Amino acid sequence: MDLASPKPRPNSVRLQKYLAQCGVASRRAGEVWIRQGRVAVDGHVVTEVGVSVDPSIQIVSVDGRPIKPESFVHILLNKPRNTVCTCQDPQGRLTYQELLPDLAARVYSVGRLDMDSEGLLLLTNDGDLAHRLAHPRHHVDKTYHVWCSGALDRAALGRMTGAGVESEGERLRMRSIAPRGETRGGWLFEVVLGEGRKRQIRRMMTESGTKVLRLQRVAMGPLRLGNLKPGAWRHLTVDEVERLRAAGEEKETR
């Protein structure tokens, strides 16, 4: 059945875009699902990517299950130091929730940052996206700027990404570490983790003979902290959300 119309209705949208709006897949993954015959419109299987649909009058289903847009919230927060990644703190410390306005939905952090760490914190009620970004199986890279009390020699840097560093019975490794020189805040390194363990960077630096003075997360996959001020937040754009979904799907297939 040809569902494409030469004169799209005012409410029409490309099928793969609608799948992304429903939070079931990125546009790219949606195109694959369409070609695989997993998507139907009004009960008719669609295998052409260029089809447009009008969700106000048509029913779209994936694997036989009707779908509809969810009221997802995706927020990027620049978490300041001395802020905890919890909804409520019995010790009365500042939580990330207190930095946000009243929202229509309750959001939760995707992964955590230590109280003494700062930077990019993704907050959402999108459970599927949160799982893809946080689960070790997907290995979505996180990038950090780390200021330390001293420099590291080439051998220490090699161990970080090679054999790894033993700490508290765990073998810890970084995906990459690049020295950026000495600054007023200490010796600066750019660190990328594929799978983060509790206080991993601090533990690895301590075992290597230096101390972390400041730690800031600046990226999660394709999402960048940018110039957002400490304590400030913003909603993610549609494009940012789709690129995050795609990042999780890419890692899953590797």
Please, could you describe this protein's structure?
The protein is α+β, with helices and mostly antiparallel strands. It folds into 3 domains: 13-66, RNA-binding S4 domain (Structural Genomics Hypothetical 15.5 Kd Protein In mrcA-pckA Intergenic Region, Chain A); 71-138 and 222-254, Alpha-Beta Plaits, CATH 3.30.70; 141-220, Pseudouridine synthase. The protein is built from 6 helices and 17 strands. It has helices spanning 15-21, 27-35, 127-134, 154-161, 200-207, 238-253, and strands at 13-14, 39-41, 44-45, 52-53, 60-62, 65-66, 74-79, 108-109, 118-124, 142-148, 165-167, 170-172, 176-183, 186-193, 212-220, 223-224, 233-235. Strands 7, 8, 9, 10, 13, 14, 15, 16 and 17 form a 9-stranded mixed sheet that branches. α1 (15-21) crosses α2 (27-35). It is elongated, with a radius of gyration of 22 Å. The mean pLDDT is 89.
